[in-house]
Amino acid sequence: MLAFIIRRLAQSVLVMLFVALIAFIVFRYVGDPIASMVGVETRLEDQEIMRDRLGLNDPVIWQFLRFVGNALQGEFGISYRLQQPVTELILSRLPATLELAFASATIALVFGLTLGVFTALKPKSFLTGLIMAVSLIGVSLPTFLIGIGLIYIFAVELGWFPSFGRGQTVDLGWWRTGLLTESGLRSLVLPAITLSLFQLTLIMRLVRAEMLEVLRTEYIRFARARGLSQRAIHFGHALKNTLVPVLTITGLQLGSVIAFAIVTETVFQWPGVGSLFIVSVQVVDVPVMAAYLMFIALVFVLINLIVDILYYVVDPRLRVDAGSGK
Amino acid sequence: MKKVTTRLAGALLASTIIAGAASAETIRWARASDALTLDPHSQNQGVTHNFAHHIYETLVDRDVEGNLQPRLAVEWELKEDDPTVWVFKLREGVTFHDGAAFTAEDVVFSLDRARSEASNMRQLHVEVAEVRAVDDLTVEVQMVGPAPLYPNNLTNTFIMDKDWSEANDVVEVQDYAAGEDNYAVRNTNGTGPYILQSREVDVRSVLTLNEDHWAEDTPAVTEIVYLPIADNATRIAALLSGEVDLVQDVPVQDIDRLQNTQGIKIETGPENRVIYFGYRFGDEPLASSNVTDANPFNDPRVREAMELAVDRDAIAQVVMRGQAIPTGVANPPFVAGWTEELDAYPAVDLERARELMAEAGYENGFTVTLDTPNNRYVNDEAISQAVVGMLGRIGINVTLASRPVAQHSPLVTSNTTDFYLLGWGVPTFDSAYVFNDLVHTKEGSFGAYNGGLYSNPELDAKIQSLGTETDMEVRDATVAEIWQVVKEDRVLLPIHNQVLAYAMRDGLTLPVHPENQPLLTDLTLGE
Q1: How far does Cα B137 stand from its chain's mean position?
Q2: Name one GO cellular component term (chain A) (predicted).
Q3: What's B273-499's CATH class?
């Protein structure tokens, strides 16, 4: 067990280093950070001085090593754009993204499960057809269109929800939350729905497919034959057996929700790490981009690590393999 | 419901104004991006300066007509017997937000800080040799040579409190490489009309009225909530839903629709920025062309043909939806040296253009790549696309290469482009600024954005003389001569002056500022 975990940890570190290197090489080509830092009117010799001060004239490999060395100490340098420590910037933006991600994951899970079960149990109902059709539209429309559409209907026309921002927030010292105020909660509604739509559809279709399959299995028929109530069969047996793959997918998807909240955050001016990243790309703020990519890589590596360990704990066959020295 | 409440509130406010009582008016002000920093000398960037102008003040300022106005300095003049010294008389009775008195020492400290090596404002003060306080309210700036236009460079150089800076360890402008935080990046102590209450970068900043400000008139706006909203559609939606009162950076395609929306008002006005095309000079063949034995752009007949083929009016009407002012000179109308004759441009004449191309030996045309930014100026990429089509009509086959400005700008400064679009603002409001960077041969600190490597030694000598000429009549004549040559030689292909639009709810009036730096003290209320 310990050897397995150590091996997976070592692999994770390699992945992180690789991401850092790729990030670094790519950032050589996104443009000249100086050009966007100084505006068109700054003299070229001043730009050269800045380039020197930022270490941009050093060899790339030297810049990379310096970056890794600093990153190991949780030090990602100063944002070129805002002149504040990057680590601090990302940490201050993280609560907004996490709250949005968990809110949308909750919406996706609750509605995805409910609708999935409903469409599986009543496959011939008219409502099922409608839900399936709407869900197709939901996945095929780009996120920003959905976001803009929701803004126009619910913010501009109806005035029910705010069109941008996070509303009033409460600073708990280590966490700035919008969940404790009315305007904060209202602000969360539209972006959370926008971000959840794709996951919702995914979960719904997955639950429906799994459930339909389980309902055809032998033990369900036996349970029916024994005269168990519909309720017990559907929710006690069928749904429970559907949940394992659904939870796995949901766990993995949570990572991508955090990572790809970028579009939703931009449309709703949600002050999370995603919108920070987009603005940073536009002005070639390399320290922020690099730190963000590292952070996202870390999220995925950690989630995968946990999933692997859980599999190892849950599935005896993996243990036998490891034990036999393969 | 919400809209009704806002309207009721508006009506109530209106009645209090009529009654003459001081009213509390909060303006929620949205624009595309946030100020980069609160340290006034660390970035030379319009959005950052615009925000800083509310908190900090400069010695002199520019009004919406583009004229210099006294602000912290009440008078400025060249010293009587020494044209290399500028004397500034400072305003009496000014205090910083923390209560400290404003004196000449603060001006000396701030100007020295602004020209220190880590400061991004340094370029505007390169000609300063020494700044000294004569008495509490008089400052002398010793220039290295005669510098008749130096006050023009001061409109964005903000004055900080020396004691406050020393106490908070911000005497030096923040050094990126040192990787340290700086108190002045997040905290302020200015003399300006508003005091910073709270700041969340990229989210919201709140400013409240400085009750002890020296100005006689109390501004109508008592509280400013500053909201950066990056996405165009979201920003406009926030105005339509009544969540913000004032929107800067209005996309041109929304102007018409907003103008026809009830409860919304649009103010437009020319910006101090000209959009132009530049091309490569010299005999060296172009890197991106199928003509490999000569440089077609170097032939004046080709440049004339291009000017005759480009339909500026069509660009203004179709691409810019009327929100541009076509021009024949790469000099915005506010800038000294601009004249109506220069501004005039020839009508489109394709027949003559084709003749000229044939005379130059290109009856079959040639190919070339046009580099354009796609996120810097209003509809920059669309303008380039239009020009590609227009030049195609006279046989010039243009391939469009579009990039974000972060990648485009280095092409121009490193002279690796054959044909490019650029916009140019003139913060000094003087033609010399245009000549120095766009027309003068590229050498030393001159010609930084002369991407086509135009070179004319005769003009260079004239341009350099502008820097030290104190006889304004002689200087104006030289400026006119230079413009004449630049226009006849078609050094640049100017297209139009950019127009700015501010959208606001009815009942507000805020004139467009030529440098896109509106002060909300200029905002007035009332139907």
Answers
A1: 31
A2: plasma membrane
A3: alpha beta
